[in-house]
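Re: the multi-chain job from yesterday

Posting the exact lines I submitted so nobody has to dig through the queue logs.
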Amino acid sequence: MAIQVIAFDADDTLWVNEPFFREAEEKFCSLLEDFMPAHSILKELYHTEIGNLSLYGYGIKGFTLSMIETAMRISNQQMPISLVEKVIQIGQEMLEKPVDLLPGVEEVLQNLNGDYRMVLATKGDLVDQERKLRKSGLEKYFHHIEIMSEKKVEDFAKLIRHLDVKPEHFVMLGNSLKSDVLPVLELGGHAIHIPFHTTWIHEQVHHEVKHENFSSVENIRLAAELIRKM
Amino acid sequence: MAIQVIAFDADDTLWVNEPFFREAEEKFCSLLEDFMPAHSILKELYHTEIGNLSLYGYGIKGFTLSMIETAMRISNQQMPISLVEKVIQIGQEMLEKPVDLLPGVEEVLQNLNGDYRMVLATKGDLVDQERKLRKSGLEKYFHHIEIMSEKKVEDFAKLIRHLDVKPEHFVMLGNSLKSDVLPVLELGGHAIHIPFHTTWIHEQVHHEVKHENFSSVENIRLAAELIRKM
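And the result, structure tokens for all chains:
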């Protein structure tokens, strides 16, 4: 069997995530509609987030701080202080969201369980990712959980070394070409892209990916079938 | 040799951390001195932090959000909006602090290097702890880095299992009796306490620790000497 280790991305691969950010952004825009039209607010927010990325990393707490910073800037510090409280509440509600598994996820993990070593490789905030994993009930399927601050080539190289597997026996499944696919292909591993309907601008890749170790499938069930044939 | 793995806590064991929080709290109190005396502000802030701990976890981003929440509450939403900006800045400055190694740290790691498997076991925010480790230049001494959302018995049990070492061959060094010492002793491991002059209230233990696998020493050099004799 060619594949020994299957690594799964979590957000928007196993469970819903990005739509909660879109929903939060909508609420944020409606709080500030007196100061600016929504599309400009979103641009400003994205600008703040990217500016803070090296300082805050990924995750809801940094996102909340970036919303507050953006609100102050675009309102020219004229917004009411109660608005800050509402923004903090948007963040706290995000942190309390239930975990919605995507269709087929549990069935596929059950099916592959025992035949492959399965690991979770997810980017984001430690506490929040652990909370989601606990709520998901999926922890038992994973041999190893890796919560990464970044998913670049060197981060995957470290993970693959740690798992003591050859890249050609490693496959990564995820919804982000940038974070789940390209770095793994560069290391000689396999990658299967399972697109999700919503992708954060920062994760978007604007060129076509073609590689002998790469496939793109519609859902996680098809990804599992593909792995069985590899 | 009895000890095979030495695990080091990071904040206030390898480098200065808690004093930056104390400094930030002082700045926060002086921003709000018109509303409340400092000692009451600190009580309110601690109350907010503990209330948010399960949601935010440990670290500077959650601390910043808790400062903002506290400021709004104690000013009865009467504070100027510019104050929020100042609080965010306090947090960002904390995230940009240089890493001050405690005396003897590098020398001790160099000395033990090769004779023991050394790991870093630290609690806190993923991005921030990785940043400090990178700045510290100490990464090369560690066989494994574990950034934990909590340091409870089950968290150390997982770590010890992962390292494939028997608890009696494992020693943890750290400044927190609650997080670095008690859970490790409970698992049958060894623990050495290296007190630091400042401890966050939440980490304080108000009873004496007595255990055959426990020692308390004044600095990391003495801890290393002790390990050599174990």
